[in-house]
Amino acid sequence: MPIDPVLAIVGDRAPQDVVEQTRAALGLDRSLPVQFALYLGRLLQGDLGRSVMTSHSVVDDIARFFPATLELATVAIVIATLAGVPLGVLAAVRQGTRTDHAIRVLCLAGHSVPIFVLALLTLLIFYATLGIAPGPGRQDVVFEDTVPAITNLLTVDALLAGDWDAFRDAVAHLLQPAGVLAWFSMAYIARMTRAFMLDALSGEYIVTAHAKGLSAMRVIWRHAFGNIAVRLVTVLALTYAGLLEGAVVTETVFSWPGLGQYLTVSLLNADMNAVLGATLVVGITYLVFNLVADLLYRLMDPRVR
């Protein structure tokens, strides 16, 4: 922690007796094993404590901030999948050609350019220079608090309310950060798809399929791609989980009020309960998506059953 969490609450000019009383009230005067046991006891009851920064329950804060990250990550993974998978397949089929080299360069750029640089360039070009995109944030000021919060997914709530102006504004604000995350994720998805497809296309069953006179499209998408789909599920699931952990840098640059920004601000303010709560959400997210990937294996590959 950058500062003492007790001083973050009472201030660095508080009398020593107030500091000690606050430390005792928070249980920070006890040994670390005791503190940990007390925290686990509250955790089992669904109590993550209160945030010093917002004065709200950490559970309520996460319920308020996480939907923004969920919305951003979902749009990003959809774009990345729709672009990355076909590009990876195309690169494998055209191995060694200019098309393959161009796709590999595109993926290399997506992985090599720091995401904060890409985010800043996006704002500089489309917002500051061309003026065709909105600025940072999740919505314009004129639309704040105009859409009833039902799911806390702004685009969904705007649709449910029938407010098309608010919906278009939410989508416009969503496209830039989602596009940045999508390019970064697309690069990884395309590279893994290409590697999987190259392995599949070298199999003897592909030679047999061609010998039977099947069309190239059927061989590629039915036989080769069908064989790598199970492995690709893991890539997509873990990529989505990585986006859901908060996309800290992207949310910070675009002032996106999601879990990543909440975690960053909490860390800088020595808000221990908020940091631990957000970290727990990240860990649980990875566990859940690993479990989902395992369950999908059973549905997609009878051999696993």
SSE topology:
Layout: H1 5-10, H2 16-25, H3 32-44, H4 58-93, H5 98-112, H6 115-129, H7 154-161, H8 164-201, H9 204-211, H10 216-244, H11 248-253, H12 259-268, H13 272-300
Helix pairs in contact: 4-5, 4-8, 4-10, 4-13, 5-8, 6-8, 7-8, 8-10, 9-10, 10-13, 12-13
Structural description of this entry:
One of its GO terms (cellular component) is plasma membrane. GO terms for molecular function: dipeptide transmembrane transporter activity. The chain crosses the membrane at residues 72-93, 105-128, 170-190, 228-254, 274-297. This protein is an all-alpha fold and 305 residues long. The protein folds into two domains: 1-47, no CATH class; 58-115 and 179-300, MetI-like fold (Orthogonal Bundle). The chain is 73% helix and 0% strand. The protein has 13 helices and no strands. It has helices at 5-10, 16-25, 32-44, 58-93, 98-112, 115-129, 154-161, 164-201, 204-211, 216-244, 248-253, 259-268, 272-300. The longest helix has 38 residues, at 164-201. It is globular and about 85 Å long. The chain starts with a helix and ends in a 5-residue tail after the last helix.
Comma- or semicolon-separated keywords:
single chain; 305 residues; mainly alpha; MetI-like fold; 2 domains
